[in-house]
């Protein structure tokens, strides 16, 4: 069932915003009408969210309360996300249903001549909303969070086998359905790993991102060759986010939270500073891998003010949700090791997805038969102009088997 939700920010306050804000173009009418006739969905659409790349509406099935769809309207380039979601097939990855393009009148806000809509299966409320709901959270035990992390890791293992890094793991990109099943959403920043073009700058939050991901995005790497990038960056970038998400599950607090003015996102340097207070200094050999003297200088200067690494078990004792404390004590050795091997600045020392799946902390949730891999590799397409991307999208949507 598509659950009603309030729009909440990270601290749980309700944000006033007009519903379905971006679904007001004339073209939206055709798409929504088409959804009602083709999929027989009923009810007033529910606003599921709005992010950097578009806005998302949810609809519930006329016939079956358990089934719903999510419609994401794009404001920007989206070819890679469409391609990835249509190609991937995993029980913990959002499922493709269809996509539409509709010609936009010239007056519209949209950047191109077409609006693009992606239709996926509704996967439940996102984890940011779930974690913000103190009352309902009491249903989650440490064991339920372990199950979610295991499901997330299985999705990552599958992605890795298909040559894909998600690069934007965070609670709002993870949905949890009414039965607690996890679905990974939002492939807007995901890339095939043999990236040979720019690692685009993204306006989203970097509080869940690994150091190397933050500096790749905010540093001056445009001129780097693939080999040079691979020296500092690989698929373990997603594992840092797994550690940050697990901490947030346990405490309900964003681990690397940085206070910013409403409507703004924390800057890269603020997030790095926060990480230095929690995880201790960055080893100098990691800093020396990074490009540009100025970046290295900046990081070394920040490093001089780093605090000693915190004791995570002590942090959970102080800030963990009260009903999890018994389980945390019972599991403290494995939990401590799990966190300390994910929140590691050097990606080479960071735990891999396979090591995490086999970690004793998750032993009770291990399901080897569910650790499936893809039998294909996603190849990234070369960069194009906005017009050429639009052409490619039309060709892709109109061709069921590209
Ligand atoms: N299939 C789905 N099932 C349930 N909820 C969904 C689904 N797709 C999207 N959502 C909701 O809509 C929100 C925005 O979707 P998505 O993350 O794909 O967009 P985005 O614009 O790329 O977001 P951002 O840039 O903020 O990460 C999600 O955080 C989630 O709450
Ligand atoms: Mg998102």
User: CATH homologous superfamily name of the largest domain?
Assistant: Transferase(Phosphotransferase) domain 1
What's the domain count?
A: 2
- pLDDT averaged residue by residue: 81
- According to CATH, the fold-level topology of the largest domain is Transferase(Phosphotransferase), domain 1
Structural class: alpha+beta
The strand order across the widest sheet is: 1-2-3-5-4
What binds here, in terms of ligands, is: adenosine-5'-triphosphate, magnesium ion
Helix count, DSSP H or I runs of 4 or more residues: 16
Largest sheet: 5 strands, antiparallel
Q: How far is it from the N-terminal to the C-terminal residue, by CA?
A: 33 Å
CATH class of the largest domain: Mainly Alpha
DSSP, total strands:
10
What is the CA-based Rg, rounded?
21 Å
The arrangement of helices and strands along the chain is: HEEEHEEEHHHEEEEHHHHHHHHHHH
- In the predicted model, the low-confidence regions spanning at least 5 consecutive residues are 1-21, 195-199
Quick one: overall form? globular
The share of residues in helices is 25-40%
How big a fraction of the residues is strand?
5-15%
Provide the CATH architecture of the largest domain. Orthogonal Bundle
GO cellular component, one term: nucleus
Protein name: Phosphotransferase
GO molecular function, one term: ATP binding
Pfam families: Pkinase (PF00069)
Molecular structure report:
It is a single chain. The protein is α+β, with helices and mostly antiparallel strands and 402 residues long. It folds into two domains: 5-121 and 383-398, Phosphorylase Kinase, domain 1; 125-370, Transferase(Phosphotransferase) domain 1 (Transferase(Phosphotransferase), domain 1). It has helices spanning 26-39, 79-87, 127-132, 134-137, 142-161, 211-218, 226-232, 237-251, 268-279, 284-287, 293-303, 312-319, 325-330, 332-342, 353-357, 386-398; strands at 41-50, 54-61, 68-74, 96-103, 114-121, 125-126, 164-165, 174-176, 182-184, 191-192. The strands form three sheets. Strands 1-2-3-5-4 form a five-stranded antiparallel sheet, with helices on both faces. The model is unreliable at 1-21 and 195-199 (pLDDT under 50). It binds adenosine-5'-triphosphate and magnesium ion (MG). Adenosine-5'-triphosphate binds next to strand 1, strand 2, strand 3 and strand 5. One of its GO terms (molecular function) is ATP binding. Keywords: ATP-binding, Nucleotide-binding. This is Phosphotransferase. It holds the Pfam family Pkinase.
